[in-house]
Amino acid sequence: MSKLSLLSRIFVLVSPFFLPWWAVLVLALAALFFYEPYYDILALGLICDVLYSSTHSFFGLYGFTLISGVLLIIVGQIKKRLIMY
Q1: Does pLDDT of 13 surpass 80?
Q2: DSSP string, 3-30
Q3: Residue 59 has what DSSP assignment?
Q4: Residue 40 pLDDT grade (very low, low, confident, very high; cuts 50, 70, 90)
Q5: pTM of the model
Q6: What pLDDT is attached to residue 24?
Q7: How far apart are CA 65 and CA 47, in angstroms?
Q8: For residue 12, which of 48, 62, 37 has the smallest C-alpha distance?
């Protein structure tokens, strides 16, 4: 793993502490497309659940984690079907 890859993964995992939720979502989606198996998004979902979730939300306490897992699967399937030249 290169230094740039490591620094960008650390930045994405630390971003929920300093950025609003929508900026974290954009960073996570970009990281999903740039890195092949980006399993760090599940840890990002747990961090966001701890920081932003409430028991009164639609998905409950683990909403961000569920959404990040679904995004991991969907983006993985989309990346398989994309033709990159």
Answers
A1: yes
A2: HHHHHHHHHHHHGGGTS-HHHHHHHHHH
A3: S
A4: confident
A5: 0.76
A6: 86
A7: 9
A8: 48
What sign has the CA pseudo-torsion 5, 45, 36, 78? negative
Closest to 48 measured CA to CA, from 31, 34, 68: 68
Query: Tokens 């960073």 appear where?
Result: 27
Q: Which residues contact 33 (CB under 8 A, 6 or more apart)?
A: 75, 79
Q: Which bin fits 2, alpha (ψ -120 to 50), beta or left (φ > 0)?
A: beta
Instruction: Give the SS3 label for residue 80.
Output: helix
Joined tokens for residue 9: 């993964």
If we measure between CA atoms, which residue out of 18, 72, 1 comes closest to residue 43? 72
Strand segments (E) across 18-77: none
| Residue linked to tokens 């994309």 | 82
- Tell me the pLDDT of the chain averaged across its residues: 83
